[in-house]
């Protein structure tokens, strides 16, 4: 299996082989979301696909590790990430603040990773019910792909472990506001002794990524996959790569989360300088924990890609102090990060131009 280990080669394969598959799958789920009967569930499902496409694009890159099984791998990644983004919308804009509701919704993510599990009524603790089979279809799609993988049993324990962290996080961070931090701090103490030194909000960030799951699934398509490889991937991606991923995600959403009253882990750092120092620490540790993993250079590219893509976001450029610190971090992280930073800026500009062009076409049709 040939895996790109240089930035230009990676981006060429991503644009040529991965993004078309990602958008093909997203179009399928977009159409299904538009057929949902309940107006609130429909609104959140369509919004999650419209507003969080880049989550699927980023996750889809790991399908490059699946060899000749990219189509199947992307099918899983998009279905699973779509569940994640949809449930995040339901919880963020929830008509309920009931932890039982959040727990039940996220049981769908565990069922999606458990081949043979019967889909449940994931909406049983909320008023909105009829999603026209949307969430069940997403769950079954994930199960079907996993059921076709020869080495599924080797990755299953790690998938469920990482999913368990993710689901616990989503419950604790969405409850009534004054309970969130105490619950997250208490949850952190359950795992603190087995973790490297970090704060509760950094552990929460490590729990909030799906990258480890996607990496395990992608590699497990390979005929020579082993239990030792599965363990290496888990230990390489959790906690540091996943933590870096989500800290960057929260970094760009700070102002938005403040306005909407959403929990943001980056807001707990005492200063921007401290936050950037800890991000540098996570970058360094993420690199260290990649020693011995197959295709080590590819995974380093992913780390640098995360930096470039997130820090090139318009939300960062729009904040003077944040923009200054982001450029400093990019510079400290080397030429590869700068390449992905420039690439990210160019890709967003292209997307905006395409959106304006499509909007003008629609306006002409209406006229």
UniProtKB/TrEMBL annotation:
InterPro entries: YtpB-like. Keywords: Lyase. Its EC number is 4.2.3.130. The keyword Lyase applies. GO terms for molecular function: lyase activity. It comes from the Bacteria. Pfam families: DUF2600. This is Tetraprenyl-beta-curcumene synthase.
């Amino acid at each position: 299996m040939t895996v790109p280990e240089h930035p230009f080669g990676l981006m060429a394969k991503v644009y040529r082989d991965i993004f078309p598959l990602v958008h093909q799958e997203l179009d399928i789920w977009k159409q299904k979301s538009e057929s949902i009967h309940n107006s609130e569930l429909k609104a959140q499902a369509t919004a999650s696909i419209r507003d969080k496409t880049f989550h699927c694009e980023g996750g889809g890159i790991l399908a490059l590790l699946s060899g000749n099984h990219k189509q199947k791998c992307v099918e899983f990644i998009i279905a699973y990430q779509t569940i994640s983004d949809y449930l995040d919308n339901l919880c963020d804009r929830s008509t309920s603040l009931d932890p039982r509701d959040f727990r039940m919704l996220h049981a769908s993510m565990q069922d999606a990773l458990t081949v043979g599990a019967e889909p449940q009524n994931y909406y049983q603790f909320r008023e909105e019910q009829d999603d026209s089979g949307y969430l069940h279809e997403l769950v079954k799609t994930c199960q079907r792909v996993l059921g076709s993988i020869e080495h599924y049993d080797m990755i299953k324990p790690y998938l469920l472990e990482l999913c368990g962290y993710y689901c616990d996080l989503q419950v604790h961070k969405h409850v009534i506001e004054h309970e969130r931090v105490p619950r997250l701090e208490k949850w952190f103490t359950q795992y603190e002794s087995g973790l490297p030194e970090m704060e509760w909000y950094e552990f929460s960030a490590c729990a909030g990524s799906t990258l480890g799951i996607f990496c395990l699934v992608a590699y497990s398509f390979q005929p020579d996959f082993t239990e030792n490889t599965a363990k290496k991937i888990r230990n390489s991606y959790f906690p540091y790569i996943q933590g870096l991923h989500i800290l960057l995600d929260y970094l760009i959403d700070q102002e938005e989360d403040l306005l909407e009253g959403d929990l943001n882990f980056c807001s707990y750092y005492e200063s921007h300088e401290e936050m950037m120092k800890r991000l540098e620490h996570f970058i360094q540790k993420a690199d260290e924990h990649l020693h011995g993993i197959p295709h080590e250079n590819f995974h380093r590219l992913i780390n640098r890609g995360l930096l470039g893509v997130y820090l090139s976001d318009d939300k960062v450029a729009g904040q003077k102090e944040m923009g200054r610190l982001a450029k400093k971090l990019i510079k400290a992280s080397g030429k590869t990060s700068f390449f992905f930073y420039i690439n990210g800026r160019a890709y967003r500009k292209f997307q905006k131009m395409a959106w304006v062009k499509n909007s003008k076409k629609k306006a002409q049709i209406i006229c």
